[in-house]
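Before the break, one more example. Copy the sequence into your notebook; we will annotate it together after we see the structure.
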Amino acid sequence: MKYKRVLLKLRGESLMGAKQFGIDNDVIAQYADEIKKLCDKKVEVAIVIGGGNIFRGVQAENGGMDRTQGDYMGMLATMINSMALQAALDKLGLYTRLQSAIEMKEIAEPFIKRRAVRHLEKGRVVIFGAGTGSPYFTTDSAAALRAIEIDADVILKGTRVDGIYTADPEKDKSATRFDNISFDEAYKRGLNVMDMTAFTLCKENDLPIIVFDMNKKGNLLKVVEGEKIGTLVSA
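Here is what the structure looks like once it is written out:
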């Protein structure tokens, strides 16, 4: 196994499946099954999920709402997704812990680094909800921050495409995929890997990112085993 401790970053929108909003139970069950395959191999798994399938702070700002208020609403959306995934993982018999950057003691532990690491060492899946707990930061930034704090080997960014391309492959059929790319090259090309805060955190802390297709069954385990799937961003 190439990676022993990973942070999986999932987009909230990916949980919608074919729906227009909300959570598709079949998609979340599939994701839980993929995560279980890692746990069966004794890989330590932490997860950060976005909230875009329910609410995004940016959409609130575009509608005239205060950005800070909107971002906090978005953090609550990530908690709904986190709880849904936790329930799906529990159903498969996995031990899980949900930690929140905002105090919600009835449903989640507060984020404490040492406690999170101890959970991972005991084989529990740790889900980090509510982003960083501060407005103006995305869940990409939360994923980068938490991955660094728990000393993860890699960030696995699960998307609906199979890596990073020279252009949007859904719009430009001539776009070509990178197998490997450096942080500097990705920045120079203006490739949308993560937001700049998250990207800079990963670069400065020498934390690699692998962008891959999460919807293809078996991909997650193959990536962690070291197969060349998706695009590796590294120094």
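The radius of gyration is 17 Å. The first helix runs from residue 25 to 40. Try to locate both features in your own notes.
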